[in-house]
Queue: 2 jobs
Job 1
Amino acid sequence: YAVAFYLDADALVFNFSFSPLQALNSSQLFAVCRGSSDEEDTWDVNDGVMIWNLKHARAREFSQAWLDKSVIAMLAGRNSDQYELQRLLESSDREERARLYRVYVSQDLAFMNYDGPNVKHFLRSNYTDWTGSEVSARLTMMKQVIDDGGLRDNLEDFNGLMRLFHVLR
């Protein structure tokens, strides 16, 4: 099946041998992380690192609904794309959610998000958007992880990545 590896601008793949297929169940639409281990919780699903099964029967319909709701909410200055994803999930019953997505919680969330061996996600702590969120501090942290983790040696075109950092700064 075809997959999309969706990453926020403040996330980077740390392990280049990591395959998104490892995180995704082929019968589910996407894999995502959630802070809470309560199966009923959708409010803390993090959409900053997601792996989508593009051949899932609901891929087009669900992603279009998420996009439409997100654009309307963001243009109105109300909510983020993450909030809108959480509301879409909340509108599904428990059985539908179990069929719809694989969720990583507790110790398992580091497998594909946060400060794990495969993906590093440099989360903001006190802001709801990038405004005033100390972007330069987060970029500095990203550069440090690249240096400390030996990623610089693994990248064939590190200059291209640095140009990206320069543009983001």
Job 2
Amino acid sequence: DVLKRRRGGYQQEAAQGAAAQAWNILALDGSNWQQIDLFDFQRDIEGRVVENISKRSGGFLRKLSLRGCLGVGDSALRTFAQNCRNIEVLSLNGCTKITDATCTSLSKFCPKLKHLDLASCTSITNLSLKALSEGCPLLEQLNISWCDQVSKDGIQALVRGCPGLHGLFLKGCTQLEDEALKHVGTHCPELVTLNLQTCSQVTDEGLITVCRGCHRLQSFCVSGCTNITDAMLNALGQNCPHLRILEVARCSQLTDVGFTALARNCHELEKMDLEECVQITDSTLIQLSVHCPRLQVLSLSHCELITDDGIRHLGSGPCAHDRLEVLELDNCPLVTDASLEHLKSCHSLDRIELYDCQQITRAGIKRLRVGAAGSNATHLHLFLYHVLFPKQEWHSGAGGSAAASQCLSGARERGFDPCSACVEFTCSPCVCVEFLPQSKDVRCR
């Protein structure tokens, strides 16, 4: 028996050793390391780790994400660029140590680079864009959001050297003016995605040039670009018929006139963020309901002129029955329970936000929930959160506090774990737990 046990132990050790050896062979084989994402280990990743990976994977590596790896700098990325010359997709998002030297290395050694993410790499300047334009002509997508040292000169060099750009993310590049956009409109005919959020100096002049030169545009974000007017929407409608996503939050000069021109020409729209477009009325919703049958996500938060009549048209439009999934109506003071009745036909509705809609009542919400449950929309999960009810429906005194605690306890049992801010806003008055879905997908925003 002793001999048998020893023999069995030896066999087990031998098997484990063979497995370990096989694993080492696989681990050391660079061909098995074509895609690497180190985001989950970002706090532990230092330059030497990147250098070792690059030496091991060499020319096999095609995709690498170092997003959030604060310990990685120019020296490690120079070694990486020298060793991984076939890299096509590289994310350095949030790698705040890197400078223009990294882009110089990529330009020199990585001519096949197609996607580069440099968001929040705040030391990046126009020199980086000039280097990329010279050495990475195949570049299709570039994210330099929050690289606020970039100006028109860098954009001009980039678009002239990389004519195949499909996606350009310039969010928070506050130095950019219309001249930069004119270069984009002139040299980027393949552009599909453009994000200019909070580029506060741009105006209609530059954006109209983009619309006229980039007819394939599908996703367009100019949220926070407060200088734009209906002239931009009109140009967008006339020149970009394949537009699917439009984000114009906080563009308070836009009116029904502009959105009418847009809706009548852009029938493929799927997502629209119109938050704080304070001049629009039900007329815009009527046009969207008639001309935009693919609409899935619509934000109307702080559009204070929207009424039940506009929601009625939206709820009876071609997008309502099978398309509309998300509707945000936060701070729409004229919206009442009647709007919820109009939305009963929206069988794909996944989420509706009603924060601070003072004319929405518990009874109205409950009727919508009951109506959804009784319809054929068995897949419907309606998320109602951050709802403030009128004062007459508030819990009061010690009983209110107890009710809030009970509500939170029940909410957590259903998979909804509010953050402290959400607790503060939601539970005095609180959202009755019976209106929360049986789902673990609910999140505080």
